[in-house]
Specification:
Elements lengths: L2 H25 L3 H37 L15 H35 L4 E6 L5 E4 L1 H6 L10 H5 L1 H8 L6 E8 L2 E14 L2 E10 L1 H42 L5 H31 L7 E4 H19 L2 E6 L5 E4 L1 H18 L7 E9 L2 E8 L6 H4 L17 H11 L3 E7 L3 E7 L1
Parallel strand pairs: 7-9
Antiparallel strand pairs: 1-2, 1-5, 3-4, 4-5, 6-8, 9-10, 10-12, 11-12
């Protein structure tokens, strides 16, 4: 038995003895001594009660601190071995243990946060029933331009399309969806998982940008197809064109007659159409023959001014107002000057075509920096495009122009891909379009 237990046992025996003595003295008619013994017993009970009341108060206060994760309090322990000091020593040991656990959990939490924030995939973690968002990573905030999200329903106000697709997901299955992001309209691989705790059911949704990977895969597929098509077309049409040209030359030297005239017209038509098909095939060879970029440091302000000076006569002729917007006039990009000029000129020509029916035609060339990377943007207030058109405009052969070949934007995308970058479009019908070059 320890000293503390022995002291408590002695107090209990003393209290019992006083009570017994008070009773004996009372029946022995020694009232004064009986009252004295009773008073001593009451004093002992009162001290014992106050001591236990104080102990309960200390335990309640400590429990309240534990409830709110407050382990900063330190209890002073004296050398004497009484119940107060033993209790304080126990509190300090518990505080130290909780501090150690909290420190380890904080380290793990920071480690996990750092690792997940390093991922390119956007993640959101929320309570399935209440919709309360417990956590989102930096990729989600950046991709969907959402710095804070308290409830998953708040996503409906910011990105209604994305919210609807997220709510329709089936647990454990992967879905590829197209959605708007900070980079424009991109393809997302979305998957959701669930787990249950004592606090309820939780969901983790991952949004992975597969736009670049799919672009690269599609690009390789189109290259293979175009190589085959151009090879077969040119091999088939070139002899026809050559024979047609030879026949047309001989018919020119033959005496005139109505029948020969009809033949000459027919042969001439074959010749012209063959030449047109050859020219058409050669144009698509450009997609497969984008030169390897010769990277140099290009001041953006110089790049924009060169293009503006080149196209200024067209702007004036068509009455288009053009702005150059640069927050940082010293911004530079690492790129091939001639290839990037080709991309921007093509986008500017397309923009001029888009604003031709606008009441106040306007085009802007701008540059901004995000996470240390420069983005170039070409915006207009033209007719804009529907969502289904936006998904197809970079596809070879696709064009909305009556006289277009469908090669301009495909070639522009190819140039950006060989720069290890990409091109994105965001457009609203009747409000305009913005093309973003991401390096």
């Amino acid at each position: 038995m320890g000293n503390l237990q022995l002291k408590e046992f002695v107090r209990a025996l003393l209290l019992m003895a006083l009570c017994a003595a008070a009773g004996y003295l009372f029946f022995a008619q020694s009232l004064a001594y009986a009252i004295a013994a009773a008073i001593l017993a009451l004093i002992l009970v009162f001290q014992w009660f106050n001591r236990h009341l104080w102990l309960h108060k200390q335990i309640d206060e400590f429990s309240e601190a534990v409830k709110y994760r407050d382990f900063t309090r330190r209890y002073a322990v004296k050398k004497t071995r009484n119940i107060e000091n033993q209790l304080y020593a126990s509190f300090n040991r518990i505080n130290d243990a909780f501090k150690d656990v909290s420190a380890k959990r904080e380290i793990q939490h920071q480690y996990l946060t750092k690792v997940i924030n390093m991922l390119d995939s956007a993640l959101i973690f929320y309570h399935a029933d209440s919709g309360k968002v417990e956590w989102v990573n930096d990729a989600f905030k950046e991709m969907f331009e959402t710095p804070h999200l308290g409830n998953i329903k708040g996503l409906k106000k910011r990105r209604e399309e994305l919210y609807d697709k997220t709510m329709q997901l089936k647990i454990g299955q992967q879905h590829i969806e197209t959605a708007h992001s900070s980079k424009g309209r991109i393809k997302l691989l979305i998957q959701v998982s669930e787990f249950e705790t004592e606090n309820g059911l939780y969901r983790i949704v991952m949004y992975q940008n597969v736009n670049d990977a799919m672009d690269e895969t599609e690009n390789r597929a189109w290259h293979k197809l175009l190589r085959v098509l151009t090879h077969e077309i040119m091999n088939s049409i070139a002899p026809i064109s050559s024979i047609a040209e030879t026949l047309h030359g001989r018919l020119e030297q033959t005496a005139y007659s109505d029948e020969l005239e009809d033949v000459k017209v027919g042969v001439h038509t074959i010749k012209k159409r063959s030449e047109g098909l050859l020219k058409f095939a050669k144009s698509y060879r450009l997609i497969n023959k984008v030169d390897k970029p010769q990277f140099t440091e290009i001041p953006v302000v110089q790049l924009f001014e060169n293009i503006y000076n080149l196209l200024e006569p067209s702007f004036i002729q068509k009455g288009v107002d053009v702005d150059i917007i640069l927050k940082n006039t010293r911004a530079t990009i690492q790129a091939d000057l001639h290839l990037i000029e080709q991309v921007i000129i093509n986008l500017m020509l397309n923009a001029m075509e888009a604003v031709k029916d606008a009441e106040n035609p306007y085009i802007s060339m701008s540059a901004l920096e995000e996470n240390g990377r420069v983005q170039l943007k070409i915006s207009d207030n033209g007719e804009g495009m529907e969502a289904d058109i936006q998904e197809q405009i970079f596809t070879p052969f696709f064009t909305t122009k009556k006289t277009g070949s469908g090669i301009g934007l495909t070639l522009s995308k190819q140039i950006m891909l060989v720069h290890n970058g990409n091109i994105f479009v965001h457009s609203t019908p009747q409000k305009g379009s913005t093309f973003t070059l991401q390096f």
